[in-house]
Amino acid sequence: MSSVPDDLIQPFLIEASGLRGRLVRMGPTLREVIAKHNLSPAVKGLMAEFVILATTLSAALKFDGVFSLQAKGNGPVSLMATDVTSDGGIRAYANVPKNVSPSFVVDGSPVPRLLGAGYLAFTVDQGKHTELYQGIVDLQGATLIDCIHHYFQQSDQLSAAITLAAGSEESEGWRGGAVMIQRLPEDELSVRKEEMDEAWRRSTILMGNCEKKELTSAKLSPHELLFRLFHEDGVRVFKTNPLHFSCRCSRERARQIISMLSKEEIEEYKIDGRISITCEFCNSEEWFGDAEIAAARAT
Question: Does residue 3 form part of some domain?
């Protein structure tokens, strides 16, 4: 198993330019998220990349609440979603109405092959009395990275470059990682804009030297990887943010779902006189008998 720091977001600063970035590394948490679902290997691979991408994007934003990334399409996977809370809790879900066989091959193009045509959207929900922040972009490109870079090109609020990888090995199971560098709005207004443009080009080239196996490595530490990529320009690291699997489902939320069902729906869904509410993110079940059903509908 992993012998280096895992399941974390590592903020960093490229000292020569002042550009900020995040490194994401996931092992046990990614495996736990994926293990909650009975999916084909191809869909598991897409979910792994989706979780890494959502986590990386969430790290670029300051928020107190929930960051959600969703992809909706007309392909075999009609919906994929990942939630990341501000304290590092992660969960994911995939709706696969069309059968994806164990031998299905994405051939380097998971977006068109699995998601098809549709859109990628993210929201930041900080609770009641706050404005919901949302971004949306068409599913354009062969990979999730293609899609999110398409969004960055259109966005006035978020300018970033990302490289990511995820995969499964017999000895380690699912692992994933990403590196992102971010260009802040004030950089665009700086009198040093021409210098910043050059620094940005240089940093993206250096980041592009990162190999997929380095992003997922259980032996190469985050600090070692960042030093290898950016040591010529100097790189400073800050306190890491831990990541973990966490689902927000509860018996009370399941009870609220029952309270919204009609009498006809309740009778239709009953199994041996009881109703089961299953969480789509963690597949946990909550069972309710007649007395609890009546109490829920009375509220």
Answer: no
Tokens of 277: 């509410």
pLDDT the model gives residue 141: 93
**What is the reported pLDDT for 1?**
47
Do 234 and 273 fall within a single domain?
Answer: no
Rounded CA-CA distance 157/135 in Å is: 10
Find the domain containing 276 and state its range.
Answer: 251-298
Domain assignment present for residue 2? The answer is: no
Residues 130 and 45 in one domain: yes
Instruction: Write down the pLDDT at residue 154.
Output: 80
Same domain, yes or no, for 48 and 95?
A: yes
Q: Alpha-carbon distance 149 to 155, whole Å?
A: 10
How is residue 70 written in tokens? 């969703």
Mean pLDDT of successive 10-residue stretches along the chain, which has 299 residues: 80 92 97 96 96 96 92 96 97 93 91 96 84 86 93 78 92 93 68 79 93 94 96 95 95 91 89 91 92 85
Q: Do 73 and 163 fall within a single domain? A: yes
For position 86, which CATH number holds?
3.55.30.10
Residue 299 has what pLDDT? 73
Looking at the DSSP bridge assignments, the partners of residue 10 are 23
Q: Give the separation between CA 158 and CA 184, rounded to whole angstroms.
A: 7
Neighbours of 120 (CB within 10 A): 25
Report the SS3 class of residue 225. helix
Q: Are residues 36 and 114 in the same domain?
A: yes
Strands (DSSP E) contained in the chain are 8-14, 19-26, 66-73, 79-85, 89-95, 118-125, 133-138, 159-169, 173-183, 235-237, 241-242, 244-245, 275-278, 285-288
